[in-house]
Design a protein that fits this description.
The structure is a homodimer of 330-residue chains. Chain A has helices at residues 47-65, 105-113, 122-133, 193-196, 198-209, 216-220, 230-238, 242-266, 282-293, 314-326, and strands spanning 11-17, 21-28, 33-40, 72-79, 83-84, 89-90, 117-121, 142-147, 151-157, 160-161, 270-274, 305-307. The first copy, chain A, is α/β, with parallel strands linked by helices and 330 residues long. In chain A, the strands form three sheets. A five-stranded mixed sheet of chain A has the order 3-2-1-4-7, with helices on both faces. In chain A, strands 10-9-8-11-12 form a five-stranded mixed sheet, sandwiched between helices. In chain A, strands 5-6 form a two-stranded antiparallel sheet. In chain A, strand 1 (11-17) and strand 2 (21-28) form a beta hairpin. In chain A, helix 5 runs antiparallel to helix 8 (242-266) and helix 8 (242-266) packs across helix 9 (282-293).
């Protein structure tokens, strides 16, 4: 029996192109995710391989859902880098996918699937996802910070992603820290991401331990400094290790300073913090709040700072929210 | 003969409440300023005196222009502090006017003059003025930084002031600088304004000279360190004084770092720099550009950084632009 078109068919297909995985799923307007599919992104193999895998995973979702493309409102896709939103073309390079700049993703998706498609930066869409399906449901403006390998931010104003003139708004990880000589993947020197990104946390831990095999971080890494991860540092801090606690404290200070700077510029209603490292939870959030609230104008104002709610689904939710929004919903 | 209402009557009354002066004038939609009047603001005497002087100066403009209030589209007023824009009430304290918070300026003006009135932060309106009548005519988004006693910023997105949730957007002077212990007028510690504001520039000069009477800055201040001004420091730098040059360089670095941070968050089409200290011109702007362009993501992007065009009229122009905008023009 052929189903007639109903409210239940108001689903969007969301795609999240991450550093290691590409995932896709259907999302309905109530925020239910179905027919999820994953694949490795293989970004290092370059854009042709990545685009091929994006198409494959979308086909897989369509097939498993047994829906015609005509029953789907559109495709939303979040990916690293900045996009010319109108044309859906990558306008910045991204370190994880060689030759990414210039890829006309919107056009490729629309031609391949005969569906309207919209493409945006992954962190922007995580912010939009949190706005409509996560921690930001009740607010109109927020900045959602994503802390993992990199440190990014998505700015939502009046319920919409603020992309900026060069589609580079929210690039908070590239704020300069006085006295920081480190070179960043972006090509500049001194970016805060070199301190608070996963690699920065590990680098500082390795430097502070000075090979001391008795240190808890080292023991948790089985005596091998190459096995130290940011998660181990946070776990050691939770167990009271002095060096780990100092690294967490410094990380929180730098995150707090950057977040307060973003608040001083945009003054959002809410700050949301997500990403793999943010899973450390209150051990990181508490000192971040302390730093932020003592560095925003005017002091009695306390912009709420809450953990993200959507976890690894934020990108897919945001991609779907973008489709709903472009169709005049939300 | 009574004049009939015509396009020529499409004027707004703009008021700019500054630290030392209140000025007001009529502005037409082509940007012509007429019937300007000034008075001392006497902010230290508190809000009652300031409000009284605002009313007096508006009456003076109306009287000299020989217009009925009915021939004027409305009153726009820019003043220090943050305002609840909808209600036109000051929601933050301002160090220059005791008991400023809570003053219902919009209501007072509307009742007194039977005209619609809108009130906003002075730096926000300087930014709006530059957008519609000054350096930003051709762009849709800009951040206008005002550098004088304080260091503020106004954010314009899609031709409108972005005020933020607590009306505190653009408070760039209160961004924290790592390692800066100084207490700011806002109550926090470490704000960049304590370094780059006029007082900060003078303080650093006095400290660097160490009483050396032969130093050019000291000679220009007639041997009296209390007579050193930020203007003297810039003039001495222009004449090649080594200490002055270093202070200008450091000032430009901190300004550049802050501006690049604001760009990384908002990604505006244009940056405008105004205020008394910005009159130093290219000796300050050139090193600012260098710092900014090496600290924004992604490096080949070069957001233009230009001097403000409206000088001390920016506030009045912005206040008038706000009136035109609220009436559906602009």
């Amino acid at each position: 029996m052929k189903k007639s078109f109903s409210l239940n068919d108001q689903v969007a297909l969301g795609v999240d192109v991450g550093g290691t995985h590409i995932s896709a799923a259907l999302v309905n307007r109530q925020g239910k995710i179905t027919h999820r599919a994953y694949t490795l992104s293989a970004g290092a193999k370059g854009r042709t391989v990545v685009v091929h895998r994006i198409k494959k995973i979308i086909r897989q979702v369509l097939k498993s859902s047994k829906r015609d493309p005509g029953q789907i409102m559109g495709i939303g896709l979040g990916a690293p880098g900045s996009f010319d939103f109108e044309n859906g073309v990558a306008v910045s390079p991204t370190p994880n996918i060689p030759r990414w700049r210039g890829v006309p993703l919107k056009k490729i998706l629309e031609k391949t699937f005969s569906l309207p498609a919209w493409v945006d930066n992954d962190v922007n869409l995580a912010a939009l996802g949190e706005k409509y399906f996560g921690a930001g449901k009740k607010v109109r403006s927020l900045i959602c910070f994503t802390l993992g390998t990199g440190f990014g931010g998505g700015v939502v104003i009046n319920g919409r992603v603020h992309r900026g003139f060069f589609s580079a708004a929210g690039e908070v990880g590239h704020m300069v820290v006085k006295g920081n000589p480190l070179k960043c993947k972006c090509g500049n020197h001194g970016c805060v991401e070199t301190i608070v990104g996963a690699a920065g946390i590990v680098r500082r831990a390795v430097a502070a331990i000075k090979g001391d095999k008795k240190n808890l971080i080292m023991r948790m890494a089985k005596g091998n400094p190459e096995k130290i991860t940011s998660k181990i540092v946070f776990d050691a801090a939770r167990k009271g290790d002095r060096i780990a606690k100092k690294i967490v404290r410094d990380t929180a200070w730098h995150l707090g300073a950057t977040i307060s700077q973003a608040i001083n510029v945009v003054d959002p209603e809410l700050v949301v913090i997500g990403g793999a490292i943010a899973q450390a939870g209150e051990i990181l959030l508490r000192p971040i709040r302390k730093t932020v609230w003592s560095h925003i104008y005017f002091p009695e104002r306390k912009t709420p700072i809450v953990p993200a709610r959507l976890g690894e689904n934020a990108g897919i939710y945001g991609a779907a929210a973008l489709v709903f929004q472009q169709n005049g919903f939300l």
